[in-house]
Specification:
By secondary structure, the chain is an alpha/beta fold. It folds into three domains: about 90 residues, Udp-n-acetylmuramoylalanyl-d-glutamate--2,6- Diaminopimelate Ligase, Chain: A, domain 1 (3-Layer(aba) Sandwich), CATH 3.40.1390; about 210 residues, UDP-N-acetylmuramoyl-L-alanine:D-glutamate ligase; about 140 residues, Mur ligase, C-terminal domain (Protein-Tyrosine Phosphatase, Chain A, Alpha-Beta Complex). The chain is built from 15 helices and 20 strands. The strands form three sheets. Strands 7-8-6-9-10-11-12-13-14 form a nine-stranded mixed beta sheet, with helices on both faces. Strands 15-16-20-17-18-19 form a six-stranded mixed beta sheet, sandwiched between helices. A hairpin with a 5-residue loop joins strand 12 and strand 13. Helix 4 crosses helix 9. The longest helix has 17 residues. The protein is globular and about 70 Å long.
Length: about 475
């Protein structure tokens, strides 16, 4: 696949932006130019265009005046709200639109089209960010690449990321997040990806869906709007993904570890906290690949990124060389070796049952003689099956020969602890805490040199507090 063309940066003039948004320029010079786009006056820079986003708990229109006072070159407000942006007699631009969120999405979509940039979009229940980061690293060996920042992957964050395509990079790698049906559909229509990646299907956000199959159907919205020129990179090891591939109108490239695939891994060696190695085979040959990223879940992410790289003619030898230098995104499987001899697996960014089990598998492969400690936070948004799914993780902790288990949170975390004890863990080796602060106190007091500590939980439980405490006191 050929990357996008080069060319001068797109100029965000008031007239052009208003047209892209379907808005009306009600004040200011049509040829005024914006340096960037912001939705937050706390981070707004002088010269930005401020878009007054309306949410369930806030109305950005109330901050339009503040944005102008802080140097915004213009504001976008709902129709009939121009007065909120006064004073406009200083030459500042005011654009009125029917819906500011839709206006932002329309702007991102228009810039995406005008830029000529090729877009790679990634969805899945786990591994989106890692796959995005790895794919971007591989592609950057040959192309000018941008990626969406952090978790800018929703109906507001994605179009903000697409605005950056005004600089006309050759490739953009973005992730698409969701927790309700229809959300991926919206994001796909905004981004119009040339290459689409579906990493996996898991129980994440099950509280908002009737079943895991319903989650798979929502993820399959990534197929929408595809043409014969569109490529889908799909996980051949996932039954729910394979069962839906017939709906895709474009070309399918598969990756897998357990099953035959276009990009496959064999001779896999799991080295626990020291990473993974495997022989990677594609239609263009094979190569021995070693990566410090831990676990088979991350190996699958690397395979997906390899498939993307091959779509843009990155040589396998280059992929293998770069894979050896990869580092995890913050709090996503980062192995932190403290000066006290304690090793922390910081996977505290988020959690779902599938990702929890994968993390415990890594802990289970820790070298003999080291004590295994797991600090596991409650997994949120699991709905009626929450207790059952937490119990599955508790049993997995026992099966992984965890020596000490600390669970954090509400009833789900308590169910995890109870299931671990019922599965054979000694009662005095399992403790439950309602807060991460209390769990951090206990962890800091008990760890000793040689211990390996896995820390993982949903973001709302803040298990990162445990990591920070261990770094501060034992680092």
């Amino acid at each position: 696949m050929t990357a996008g063309p080069e060319g001068p940066a797109l100029r965000l003039t008031a007239q052009w932006v208003a047209g892209a948004m379907g808005g009306v320029l009600v004040a200011g010079d049509p040829w005024s130019e914006f340096d960037g786009v912001s939705i937050d006056t706390r981070t707004l820079a002088a010269g930005d265009l401020f878009i007054a986003i309306r949410g369930e708990r806030f109305d950005g229109t109330a901050f339009a005046g503040t944005a102008i006072e802080k140097g915004a070159a213009g504001v976008v407000v709902p129709r009939g709200s121009a007065a909120a942006a006064r004073p406009v007699d200083e030459g500042r631009v005011v654009i009125e639109v029917e819906d500011t969120i839709r206006a932002l999405q329309a702007l991102g979509h228009t810039i995406r089209r005008e830029s000529g940039t090729k877009v790679v979009a990634i969805t899945g229940s786990a591994g989106k960010t890692t796959t995005k980061e790895v794919a971007a690293e591989f592609l950057a060996a040959r192309y000018r690449v941008v990626r969406n920042r952090g978790n800018f992957n929703n109906h507001i964050g994605l179009p903000l990321s697409l605005v950056e395509l005004r600089q006309r990079p050759e490739i953009a790698v973005v992730e698409l997040g969701m927790n309700h049906p229809g959300e991926i559909s919206t994001l796909v229509h905004v981004a119009e990806p040339d290459v689409r990646v579906w990493t996996n299907v898991g129980e994440a956000h099950l509280g908002f869906f009737a079943s895991v199959d319903a989650i798979a159907d929502a993820k399959a919205e990534i197929f929408e709007g595809a043409s014969s020129a569109t490529t889908l990179v799909a996980n051949a090891d996932e039954d729910r993904i394979v069962a839906r591939l017939g709906r895709f109108r474009g070309r399918v490239v598969t990756f897998g570890i357990e099953r035959a695939a276009d990009v496959s891994a064999s001779e896999v060696v799991d080295r626990g906290i020291d990473g993974t190695s495997a022989r990677i085979t594609t239609g263009r040959g094979s190569v021995e690949l070693n990566t410090p990223l831990i676990g088979r879940g991350n190996l699958a992410n690397v395979l997906a990124a390899t498939a993307v790289a091959e779509e843009f003619d990155i040589p396998l030898a280059t992929v293998a060389a770069l894979a050896a230098t990869l580092r995890p995104a913050a709090h996503r499987g980062d192995v932190v070796r403290l000066t006290s001899g304690i090793t922390v697996i910081d996977d505290s960014y988020n959690a779902n049952p599938t990702a929890m089990r994968r993390a415990l598998e890594v802990l289970a492969r820790t070298e003999a003689g080291r004590r295994r400690i797991a600090v596991l936070g409650e997994m949120l948004e699991l709905g009626e099956r929450g207790s059952e799914l937490h119990a599955v993780v508790g049993r997995a902790a026992a099966a992984a020969d965890v020596n000490v288990l600390l669970t954090v949170g509400g009833s789900g975390a308590a169910a995890m602890a109870a299931a671990a004890i019922a599965s054979g863990m000694p009662r005095n080796a399992v403790r439950h805490f309602e807060s991460s602060v209390d769990a951090a106190d206990a962890a800091a007091a008990m760890v000793t040199a040689g211990d390996v500590v896995l820390v993982k939980g949903s973001r709302g439980v803040r298990t990162d507090v445990v990591v920070d405490r261990l770094k501060a006191e034992r680092g």
